[in-house]
């Protein structure tokens, strides 16, 4: 957990949980681009480590990738929030999830299963899985900004099957993932171009759904773009 230098003791502050990629750890992500933004903006940053998987630390996102398939990482994320609330003044309407690679997959999974707790989401370098779509029933319209590279050689922009972890999974692809979130959040076709991001601005309850198409391979994306999107939304 990183507590910003500007942390105020007399008011409630946002909380951002940042999830690492397959084989990574929280120690790496606590030093991501979100750390300096936390100092500037005054939010608390938490970066947990996932359970063991065949390719290292992983998140249980349905069909893969932890060694113990009974791991409940949605409950884990919610328990982290409760722990942080014991030691810091957290604004419970401004809790956000973001992550890189499989951490982006965990971010999508939380958007499906924990939209009652997290206000907005910013996954990077990962899509929704075809295997998860049928069970993805968020309780409300979900503000979500996906950042995806068109030249990602590991998680293909156009989607498809991937068996690198030993369990074959099927990515929807960046555009189909964005379209799925648009459908689940009742978005119209009205969009606005914001830099490299195409944002659907007319969705249920004032939420927005966006896709940023980058050219940075399989790498972390812009923390400032992720934060600037998420911070505009609060839980209803």
Characterise the protein shown here.
It contains seven helices and twelve strands. The chain has helices at residues 26-29, 34-41, 73-87, 102-113, 130-133, 174-184, 223-230, and strands at 13-19, 44-46, 51-53, 56-58, 90-100, 120-124, 144-149, 160-162, 169-171, 191-194, 197-200, 209-214. 46% of the residues are buried. The mean pLDDT is 95. The protein has 236 residues and is an alpha/beta fold. The strands form three sheets. An eight-stranded mixed β-sheet has the order 2-1-5-6-7-12-11-10, with helices on both faces. Strands 3-4 form a two-stranded antiparallel ribbon.
Secondary-structure blueprint of this entry?
Blueprint: E1 13-19, H1 26-29, H2 34-41, E2 44-46, E3 51-53, E4 56-58, H3 73-87, E5 90-100, H4 102-113, E6 120-124, H5 130-133, E7 144-149, E8 160-162, E9 169-171, H6 174-184, E10 191-194, E11 197-200, E12 209-214, H7 223-230
Parallel strand pairs: 1-2, 1-5, 5-6, 6-7, 7-12
Antiparallel strand pairs: 3-4, 8-9, 10-11, 11-12
Cross-sheet strand order for the largest sheet:
2-1-5-6-7-12-11-10
- Assign an overall shape: globular
* CATH homology superfamily: Alpha/Beta hydrolase fold, catalytic domain
> What is the class in the CATH system?
Alpha Beta
Strand content: 15-25%
Question: How many strands in all?
Answer: 12
Rounded to an integer in angstroms, the radius of gyration calculated over CA atoms is: 16 Å
Largest sheet: 8 strands, mixed
* CATH topology category name: Rossmann fold
Query: What structural category characterises the helix and strand content?
Result: alpha/beta
